[in-house]
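Write out this protein's structure.
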Amino acid sequence: MIRNKFLSLPTHLTVVFSSMLGCLTLAACSQQQAHVKPTLLPQQAIPVDSHMPEKPVVYQVFTRLFGNTNTANIPWGSAAENGVGKFNDFTPKALQAIKTLGVTHMWYTGVLHHAVVLPESVNGITSDDPDVVKGRAGSPYAIKDYYNVNPDLAQDPQHRLQEFSQLITRTHQAGMKVVIDIVPNHVARNYHSISMPEGVTNFGENDDTSVAYARDNNFYYVTNEAFSVPLSSEYQPLGGQAHALADGQFNEYPAKWTGNGARAAQPDINDWYETVKVNYGVKPDGSYDFPTLPDDFAHKSTAEHYAFWQQHRLPSSWYKFREIVYFWLEQGVDGFRYDMAEMVPVEFWSFLNSSIKIKNPNAFLLAEVYNPTLYRPYIQQGKMDYLYDKVGFYDSLKALMQQTGSAKQVISAHRSVQDIAPHMLHFLENHDEQRIASPEFVGDAHMGKPAMVVSHLISQSPSMLYFGQTVGEDGSENAGFGQPSRTSIFDYVGVPAHQAWMNNGAFDGEMLSDEQRALRQFYEILMSLNKAPAVAHGQLGQVSLQTASDTARQRVMAFTREHAQQQLLVVSNFDAKQNHTVTVKLPVSWQSREGLPVTDLLKAHANSQVDATGHITVTLAPRESVVYQKED
């Protein structure tokens, strides 16, 4: 999760992994690893077994930005100046338009009530202090009240939870599930719920603040020292604009440890100073104040995990987060995306996720984990359904799109997690990553086409799309705190390419250019393949490229997906400039008879055929792909 305008993602991850508690948690988990609108394709062109579930497709949308039609985009602009989207913008028509992308799950990002700078307090909703808020609209990962939603998102802030409930209902009626964020590692520096149910206490309300650590304290403390706002010559809150609370002061005594684990009373400007770290019973020396899982629990069911934890009294924060997720399940939420899950002990995830699955066995649980050595522990012991396949697969695809990597490296990255591949969610964009069309990435949305073909079709893993991706949004706005290349999550801003598709609420793409419209159509055709048996359930097959130049071998990727009901051949040309003609040697299963016909499901190429020796030759233009289906 990008939290700081001063940090690129690799640096951000360095900060994460070097924070003391983060490293200790990673070490402990590593030890455990040893244990263990366009026309769609005709339906008949995509064989579907109605009894087989489709491959999940997650649509991540930054809720505050989705319905905003304002185009002012004034740096550091207020909601009144730059506009802000609402829950009500997700109309049935909007949701059905999203559904045409094969979407099964809507991840509404930035829903929970997070710290936000308001011009004044209204109806009991107070402004937060700009000195400890990043941006004017605020980071969605500095949660202020876990039992309510962001007042910016409601037509009537006093009834904001009801408006979100109505959105949940509309989403379900559109045939999609609802996912929201849970941020377990930290909360806003000024966390204070005004909406919590009876019997629930605020984080830190019962803490013993005279000690740095106690098992049932919700936070860690810098005893006998007051918090000081970090200083920087490069940054002023609100870009230097005046606000009654922007005085360089924030009252907190004693100071709490900062969200990334920094222990100083005055954190650095690069720290996650707007947040405080939650204590899960990990002592300052890294040892645990809770039971560890027995070695064989990597292979135990969620019911067995649940039963194990019922035997023990656990740190207070564990129960607080269980109360939070239960609250949202009762509101109709179908799953959660966990922010920086690796900074929280894997045992907590065993406890929380097994508790969730007892309530809703079909809950969708997705975690942000960047350390590959933790993938298996967090799936097996932590009972995560899905993890980001970022370090490895996404990074190698990005390098190939940028013409610095190779097809071989992508395949190698995928095969390194093939045993857990169905659990590894694939994406090309999200709120942390640069837009493909941004100059800082490749400056060409069409480079996302071969990459999305490979990302979506290489395995059974879920696929994710970020709003604006399918129409070539480039993230170039200078929003204020958020910088160009990534659509800002900290500011009030319009998203131009997405606004063109939205067409003032018509959601028909009429304002798109012909090029953008064609790109959107490509995505609709491609993503609809999530219903194909070979994509949802098939296995990866090996092929070899023959009579290909060295450049083609670097830039062209080919593989098959094999299923009893369907066989597919996928070939993608990642070269940004050159056509490539390649001959593909196919598996024995494709060599049943001479002249076997094949049909391109992407409709980019005419039908072709496999020769008597099991070869097929195809010429691909730059950034072009083919998905051939074997016709028996």
